[in-house]
């Protein structure tokens, strides 16, 4: 079912590390103005979401403030 792998000679691995190609990759295409604007808007949206969640979340997590008044139901009011 499982086959044993044959050992690879160390010289073969050393040769593979030395190998360098003389073919250079083509230069990357520059992003268009629309792509840059889109990436910037997405980044700003993510940052604004994180800042907004901090602004709303930090006050809700603080436990040192006591509530201004306690809530009472109408059923507990005497008639």
From TrEMBL:
<keyword id="KW-1133">Transmembrane helix</keyword>
<keyword id="KW-0812">Transmembrane</keyword>
<protein>
    <submittedName>
        <fullName>Uncharacterized protein</fullName>
    </submittedName>
</protein>
<keyword id="KW-0472">Membrane</keyword>
<feature type="transmembrane region" description="Helical">
    <location>
        <begin position="36"/>
        <end position="58"/>
    </location>
</feature>
């Amino acid at each position: 079912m499982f086959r044993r792998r044959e050992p690879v000679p160390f010289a073969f691995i050393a040769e593979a590390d030395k190998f360098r190609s003389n073919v250079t990759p083509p230069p990357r295409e520059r992003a268009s103005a629309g792509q840059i604007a889109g990436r910037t808007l997405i980044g700003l949206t993510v940052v604004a979401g994180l800042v907004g969640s901090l602004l709303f979340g930090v006050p809700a997590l603080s436990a040192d403030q006591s509530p201004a008044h306690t809530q009472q139901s109408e059923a507990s009011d005497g008639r």
